[in-house]
Amino acid sequence: MEGLYDIHAHIVPHFDDGSKSLDETRQILELEYRDGVRTIIATSHFRRGMFETPLHVYDEQFERVRKLGESMGITILKGCEFHANMEMIDMLNKKERYTMADTRCVLAEFKNGSDKAFIKERCYALLSHGYQPIVAHFERYEACRKDIDFVAELVDMGCYMQMNSQSLIGEDGFFLKQYCKKVIKYELVHFLATDCHNTKERKPTLGKAADYIEKFMGEGYVRELLIENPRKLIIEEK
Ligand SMILES: [Fe+2]
Questions:
Q1: For a Cys staple, 51 with which of 47, 62, 99, 145, CB 3.0–4.6 Å?
Q2: What's phi and psi for 81, nearest 5 deg?
Q3: What is the distance between the alpha carbons of residues 18 and 197, in angstroms, rounded to a whole number?
Q4: Facing residues of 75 across strands?
Q5: d(Cα 173, Cα 154) in Å, to the nearest integer?
Q6: Ligand 1: distance of its center to the CA of 17 in Å?
Q7: Residue 109 pairs with which residues in a beta bridge?
Q8: Distance from the CA of 237 to the center of ligand 1, in angstroms?
Q9: Ligand 1 centre distance from Cα of residue 83 (Å)
Q10: 5 with 37: CB under 8 angstroms?
Q11: From CA 204, how far away is CA 185, in angstroms rounded?
């Protein structure tokens, strides 16, 4: 399927633990293109004490990546994977980090062991300040893995949920794959994305994941998850 969107990718070189060079980014983009991806949001990490590279470095590198993407037929947009903390609203208000593609959506990451109360509180804080949280790779969090009702609770609150393609196709273990399939069947997932970092153990796998979902949910659902929902995000969530 062509025209897919990947809303979670670490393709800006020299900025976080993702791509290490423009050449590596080119190789990642080649794989994405082969999978049918034509739009990518470059969601480099921001995490206090771990990934704090100044934003101007992102801007400089982003421009090189954007031009590279353009030459390959892929539109690349700005974004950030924001590790949730108590200053995030303030930082977003001051535009110290990017939202998703200049919309009000924020890709919010948590620790695998973050407790339910913290996840809910931070999502609520975003919502009440006019931001739309997208919970990054929720399937990795114990709070979500052990309790699908908690995922439903976040969705009811108004959160969008993003799953990694790698988790769904079983590259992070059989049990995680089973869990992912189950939440997709419950229709609690809004976005499927690669979270790619390189061309090896964290390479983009959206094509394989799309084929897999099609088998148990049908083509229409794949379109919704990988084209319609991200398209709406970019166009409508301003
Ligand atoms: Fe990520």
A1: 47
A2: -100, 105
A3: 4
A4: 39
A5: 25
A6: 9
A7: 83
A8: 21
A9: 10
A10: yes
A11: 23
State in Å: Cα 94 to ligand 1 middle: 23
Q: How far is ligand 1, taken at its centre, from the CA of residue 223, in Å?
A: 22
Domains in the chain: ranges and CATH = 4-236 (3.20.20.140)
Q: Are 175 and 201 in contact (CB under 8 A)?
A: no
- For 44-73, b/e burial (b = at least 16 CB within 10 A) is bbbeeeebeeebeebeebbeebbebbeeee
CA of 81 to the centre of ligand 1 (A): 6
Task: Enter the DSSP assignment of 225.
Answer: I
C-alpha 60 to ligand 1 mean position (Å): 20
Question: For position 41, what pLDDT does the model report?
Answer: 98
pLDDT tens for the chain, 238 residues long, are 899 999 999 999 988 889 999 999 999 999 999 999 999 999 999 988 788 888 998 999 999 999 999 999 999 999 999 999 999 999 999 999 999 999 999 999 999 999 999 999 999 999 999 999 999 999 999 999 999 999 999 999 999 999 999 999 999 999 999 999 999 999 999 999 999 999 999 999 999 999 999 999 999 999 999 999 999 999 877 6
Could you give the CA distance from residue 84 to residue 86 in angstroms, rounded to a whole number? 7
110/140 Cα distance (integer angstroms): 9
Nearest CA to 222 out of 209, 207, 210 is that of 210
Distance 165 CA to ligand 1 centre (A): 12
- Distance of CA 134 from the midpoint of ligand 1 (Å): 12
